Amino acid sequence: MTETLNVKPEFKKKSIRSYVIRGGRITVGQKNAFDSYWGQYGVSLFDGLLDTETAFARPAPVVLEIGFGMGDSLFAMAESEADKNFIGIEVHPPGVGCLINNAGKAGLTNLKVYMADAIDVLDDCIADGSLDRFQLYFPDPWHKKKHNKRRIVQPAFVEKIKTKLKVGGLIHMATDWNPYAEHMMEVLTLVEGIKNLAGDYQYSPRPDFRPVTKFEKRGERLGHGVWDLMFEKTA
Predict the structure, then answer these.
(1) Mean pLDDT, the chain, as a whole number?
(2) Is residue 142 a part of any domain in this protein?
(3) Backbone region of residue 228 per phi and psi (left: phi > 0; alpha: psi in -120 to 50; beta: other values)
(4) What pTM did the predictor assign?
(5) CA-CA to 54 of 20 to 30 Å: which in 64, 126, 210, 217?
(6) What EC designation does it have (predicted)?
């Protein structure tokens, strides 16, 4: 059973986006999750700069993930790494509803969610030097060459992420599309002030903190590869 979507993502007007806002249907359960849990987990783009210690009622390392999909892996990480505060950004309401529903039922207190354009959130809400880890898992690869400009991983984007990280902070990306993995590697390698933890132009093994998703397991059965990239901010 579904209900017409009446919850919309927040964003400022721009010419090029790295995502498409899909017209969608939201299940009754997901809609109910907004009614029950958005007040606890939701944060608005238009609230401005986020004071994480106030928002989470404690000081703790901060992990930010862009594009968490249906939220399964972000939920698992927030649950298993209770010593960290997690911020998720996603534009698709069904995924947001699913995540906050699971988080609410589990009683998580270390999660906040933006349903908004990620670049807008980075610009307006995330303080420079405030993040301990940044995550981008399986972003849209925009396969066609004419659409490559829509890929979120571009030099200006990585520079922006670097600015938001503390020195010693981690950039972790993963993709199952080899041409995009190569693109990510090239972009990350050319940005000054970050270093590849696996060595120059080397991919990293999947770290223990990143869960294997159902999507990834299905891909592995079909013989698809997954490439993890881990870079540390050095200056």
Answers:
(1) 90
(2) yes
(3) beta
(4) 0.89
(5) 210
(6) 2.1.1.33
Annotated binding site: 65, 90, 117, 140, 144, 176, 213-216
CA-CA distance, 204 to 182, in Å (whole number)? 13
Known binding residues for S-adenosyl-L-methionine: 65, 90, 117, 140
Asked, for residue 50, whether it belongs to a domain, the answer is yes
Q: Rounded to 5 degrees, what angle do the CA atoms 63, 120, 160 make?
A: 60
Binding-site residue ranges for substrate: 144, 176, 213-216
Q: Is residue 13 part of a domain?
A: no
Dist CA 68 CA 74 (whole Å): 7
Amino acid (1-letter code) at residue 91: V
Average pLDDT over residues 155-174: 98
**What is the distance, to the nearest Å, from the Cα of residue 235 to the centroid of all Cα atoms in its chain?**
23
Active site residues: 140
Q: Which residue is listed with tokens 């270093």?
A: 195
Q: pLDDT tens digits for 104-118?
A: 999 999 999 999 999
The first and second tokens of residue 41, run together, are 């987990």
Instruction: Give the total number of structural domains in the chain.
Output: 1
Structure confidence at residue 214 as a pLDDT band (50, 70, 90): confident
Q: Which domain holds residue 103?
A: 41-233
Instruction: Report the DSSP beta bridge partners of residue 165.
Output: 131
